[in-house]
Amino acid sequence: MKTRFFLIIAFLLPTLSLFAEERSDSTALNSYSATENTLRPSSIEIPKSWELRGSLRELGKVFTESPNGVDLFESRLKLELISTLGKNTAFRALGYTVHQYPQKTLQFNLQEAYLDFYTKYADFRFGQQTNAWGKADEINPTDIINPQDLTNITEDKSIRKIGLFQAKADLKFYEFVLTALWKPAFEYMQIPKLDSRWAFFTIPGVTNLPAPEYPENKFENTEWAFKLARTISSVDFSVSYFDGWDNIFTPVITVDNTTHQPTLEKLETHRTKMIGADFATSLFSAGFWGEGAYFMTEDDEGIDPLIKNPYFQFVLGADYQFSNNYKINIQYFQEVVTKTDDDAEKTSEEDMISKLGIGLPLKQALTARFEKKFGLTEEFKFELFGIYDIKDNGILLTPKFFYSPEDGVNIEAGYHIFAGDDQSFWNRFEHNDELYLKCTYSF
Amino acid sequence: MKTKIKIMGLTALAILMSVGFVVGQTADEIMKKVDTQTVPKDMKSMMKMNLIDKKDNVRQRDLKNYRLSDEKMIMWFLSPADVKGSCFLKFENDDKDDDMWIYLPALGKVRRIASSATNGSFMGSDFTYEDMGDRNLKDYTYKLLKEETVDGKQCWVVESTPKSGVTTDYSKINSWIWKDEYIAVKEESYDKKGTLRKIKTVELTKVKNYWLPKTITMNDLKVSHKTEMVNSDIEVDTGVDVTMFDQNNMTRIY
């Protein structure tokens, strides 16, 4: 079945050239290459239709509470190879080479490598890729196409996203855009090890998690997603649908009747469907947006204690820029678990590990970002960012300072502060307050 | 003798009529002609922004700019390296706030920009997003101040004052309108306290039958900093496809 599907796609793709049209002025755009700009250092010598971009980032993070002050020193080289292979096709590959201390690891991660094909009525993307869905900022219930690497919870989201092989089509008709996405490769979200000081949770008697089980490699176990988007009267909106696997595993734990000792049997995933919607607009000069997703789990009746009940997540947000470059951004998030009989069951269901959606185990939260740019060319920026766990009274607060001494050079210094009541997620990292410094050179 | 008197009378009448024609133009009429000035159906150009401080240190921004009449604009950022690949899209509306979106490769998606952001600086330059676009004619009241010559061009000086409820950083803007072509060649913008804050000068170039800005210089007097926006490779009426100005197009690889 799978082979037949690939053969059909392979046959259809060339015929789409019948609908191809020249991208508007793409050759003129490509003719302006960095080497023509004599005021800047020349790029690496490669054929004209190819371009190599990237950045080098040095990151250092130290805990401000003892013991063991060093959390991480990291050198991250990002390389991005882009080519317009013709007027209607393009290629992009993006990878990172990362060296970390004290882990003393050197890794190469190919995050994306895909081909694009553009026609008058549709764009196609085929290969390893990341996709970002949802109009909200940072916490997106509908952004579940790619799992995230949460081993470094404070890392940029663009780096946290795990690239996976996908086939995507954006079909344009009237003023709608229909996105159809097929994802044959399933991958779990990566979370910190149980014995790490960044562990999300503990399981009594368990220090190492076994390898999680993967769905059988069959066509019916692949994942699908659709999104229909349009702008009407200055409102951008979309509706989406996902049919796939929960990318946070569910631990199956049994308890011995005699010794009452829990045993972790295995880690597994469950099939989940999602219906989502979002919108963004501007009113009274402020930006407003909303995003919501209803997750239909396998336990649609709410009777299986090992599988999370169907649940709903939503975000509402707004931002406003004041004069003199002050900007504020506020969001409210909530999760509502359905089909619960009482508060005890509700609490139990809310605490279940499965958290497809925003990825973090938060039930009700407020995020706020305050930003002020200054300097003759806005080379300085101060930002205060916070995620407040309303339900369990916990907070992650990060003041940051940015400085760009030269074009393409960015320095960021900040302080991650974790605090909260015992039951809050952020309280887990109460002793992990850390200062960090990032220096990035882009080329 | 009678013929001479007739000729002199007709000449005097003609002079009076022409003077009367100029005197008869109000500030509103002048600005309406500026607003309805014939513009290219479409335009594309390379844009270089030089950000110059008082020590003549220069930071440069490079953009590729497309315009569809005076309705839509899309810009790709070509440099510096940390913003390359970003894209800005704007739909200019007469009856409501403009629609603006930004695509940042690091975000991986297109994000709508609130209209309050028009007061913010464009790429760290002395231009705000508001400065980059056209003002809505009906959002301002106008007053003809005087006539003056700028770079050999005879100009009307018109004061524009925003009406209540209009989102802008300026309390008033004085524009020097070139009489021959009804184009602004200089502007002085005053902050909310009434202090002269910015001076914008425009050097024009003629492309086909259109007078278009070649170099726009914005001088921020408060911080002694200026930005030169230089347009080159200007092409007009080449049939730029309307689908260029589309959110989906912002994420394509160029």
What's the shape of chain A? globular
Uncertain segments of chain A: 1-47
Largest sheet of chain A: 18 strands, antiparallel, barrel
Strand % of chain A is over 45%
Account of the 3D structure:
The complex is a heterodimer of chains A (443) and B (254). With 443 residues, chain A is mainly β. Chain A has 4 helices and 20 strands. In chain A, strand 16 (364-374) and strand 17 form a beta hairpin. The longest helix of chain A is centred in the first third of the chain and has 14 residues, at 2-15. The two termini of chain A are 45 Å apart. The relative contact order of chain A is 0.11. Chain B is α+β, with helices and mostly antiparallel strands and 254 residues long. Chain B has a single domain (27-250), classed as outer membrane lipoprotein receptor (LolB), chain A (Clam), CATH 2.50.20.10. Helices cover 16% and strands 46% of the residues of chain B. In chain B, strands 6-5-4-3-2-1-13-12-11-10-9-8-7 form a 13-stranded antiparallel beta sheet. The termini of chain B are far apart. The chains are: A mainly beta (443), B alpha+beta (254). Chains A and B meet through helix 2, strand 3, strand 12, strand 13 and strand 14 of A and strand 1, strand 2, strand 3, strand 6 and helix 4 of B.
Keywords for this structure?
heterodimer, A: 443 residues, mainly beta, 18-stranded antiparallel beta barrel, two-stranded antiparallel sheet, 4 helices, 7% helix, globular, B: 254 residues, alpha+beta, outer membrane lipoprotein receptor (LolB), chain A, 13-stranded antiparallel β-sheet, 16% helix, 46% strand
